[in-house]
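Quick check before the chapter quiz. The format below is the same one you will see on the exam, so make sure you can read both the input and the output lines.
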Amino acid sequence: MEKGNIGVYGLGVMGRNLALNLEEKGYRVSLYNRTVPGKEENVVSSFLEKEGKNKNFIGTDSREAFIDSLEKPRKVLLMVKAGDAVDMVTEQLLPHLQAGDTLIDGGNSHFKDTGRRMKDLQKENIRFVGMGVSGGEEGARRGPSLMPGGAEAAWDELKPILQSIAARDEEAKPCCAWIGAGGAGHFVKMVHNGIEYADMQLIAECYHFMKEVLKMPAHEIGTVFGDWNEGLLNSYLLEITSEILQTTDRDGKPLVDNILDSAGQKGTGLWTSVSALESGTPLPGITSAVFARVFSSFKSLRNELSNKLSGPVPENITISETSSPMSDLRQALLAGRIITLAEGFFFIRQLSKENEWNINLAEVARIWQNGCIIRSELLKPVRQAILSGSDLAHLLEAETLGNKLEETHPGLRNIVSTCVQNGIPAPGMSNALVQYDMLRSKWLPANLIQAQRDYFGSHTYERVDQPRGEYFHTDWNQKNNKS
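Here is the expected output.
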């Protein structure tokens, strides 16, 4: 019996579509899915009778048979829920694996867990790869963006397989590249998801502005987003938003108007914010988007407080006569996206240095250009900025992006101002503007904060007239008691 070239453990939505993608690219794929107690359906058998019928798959009914069906060195793609399930499955498979075999975790695992698993399995001479997979169901089937990292010794064997199923950029290069050691692959995927949160929030705030301030119906807003979906604003998220807003429900009303305003999350945005706080890296745009989802989930509290807390009401909204709201809104969206990408890449740069991952930021920008959820035209100038200035500490140092913000930040200011004056919450745009203004501020009032810290906690401070790294302390009570 011929052996499988690669195995897929877990036939959920992503697992089955990746399996189909692999088989379509010429690989013999072994399959296994755990039996769920109380369910009569055998997931593997059902798959082979439907989508996988008459295709080059090997179905197995036990973990031992699954591993035995693979050619050596074995390559196993785990498509199971992130967290304890990955550790459990790894532990169950380990007795059947041999030195030189490779486990690939294709779920949304936390990058620290991935680093730990890689180190633990190194002791058994098992290669562990944590791979970010973006693109959703359609991407998995037709071509995702793949972000593998971990045990680099496995890359030569995995490269032809993974790059064959990945999406292609405009130069027909695969949107799959080795990211780095340890948890680098899952870290980059985590930041990708954080940027996704922020991008979705910015688009939602544009929708909110057009709905509440400009009193536009959903289908007209959808048309505007469709018109905007060109040039630097061209993106997958804007494309699907246009389609969503022009979709009607069974009652003839826009479907979006019948959807409860309470957004969910699976945790990767939260992880991005927490990791940024732990490393001391500012991510105000991404973090505000996470909190916006959290606020939305408190629907009953918002309903109650909407009748108790006063503020501007939609019926009395005012717009400055000197502004052009639609033009400003378009500028605000572009400016917000530039600032969001800049903060995301800054975070990747910081953690890459901290963990010695040596992540190639230009390659990250390239493999995000297709197949993933945040794919957009804007990633092309981002990549060019990185390539043209390898010593850039921050993307906003790049002349091309800085010039674009010079053009667009006035519109962002006008929109934020209008929102504040009229009680329209715009946390994504507001925090993008705050970040821009803080980054361009030569002086910030942190000297007073440091003086306060020294006063109550003797935390010391540096002086403007002395070299950096020299610290001083003042006995503030003694100074204040002088006559």
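If your answer matched, good. DSSP finds 20 helices and seven strands in the chain.
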